[in-house]
Design a protein that fits this description.
By secondary structure, the protein is an alpha/beta fold. The chain is built from 3 helices and 9 strands; from the N terminus they run ββββαβααββββ.
């Protein structure tokens, strides 16, 4: 079974969770990623696509994913981190090295990481086209025993 944590409106799991109620999603459970309502080793795989950057305590979320998963965890997140990672950056890393913080944060927890670059569609501002800027993502995976 595959758990999708923070499924939004695009579920990918056999069980899908989010903190907001989603309608018309199969096997949906309203739950907090920092306190998953499942038994230990309940899932062979867990995925989280653009959710961890919205969590207040990212350490708890990763610990919960490791608790409920026995085979593989995949996390996909923007390099420009949000609330929980900003708090960690203030406490543990120097600001001048913030572009290296997120990959090293995952690696220090046993994850393998890849940097992915995506280009968004061109924008129109003041009747002029602005070229698309690259947007960087982290793809982090860990194989569990």
């Amino acid at each position: 079974m595959i758990l999708d944590v923070g499924c939004g409106n695009n579920p990918k799991g056999t069980v899908n969770i989010d903190v907001e109620i989603k309608h018309n999603i199969e096997n949906f459970i309203k739950a907090d990623a920092q306190n998953l309502p499942f038994k230990t080793n309940a899932f062979s795989e867990s995925i989280s696509d653009h959710a961890i950057e919205h969590v207040i305590n990212v350490e708890n979320m990763v610990a919960e994913l490791k608790r409920v998963t026995y085979k593989k965890i995949t996390i996909f997140t923007p390099l420009l981190f949000s609330y929980g990672f900003r708090e960690l950056l203030k406490k543990k890393e120097q600001r001048k090295h913030k572009q290296y913080f997120l990959p090293s944060w995952f690696k220090n927890r046993g994850f393998k990481t890849k940097m992915i670059v995506a280009f968004h569609h061109p924008l129109i501002r003041n009747k002029k086209m602005v070229l698309p800027l690259p947007f960087f993502y982290i793809h982090a995976t860990i194989e569990l025993h």
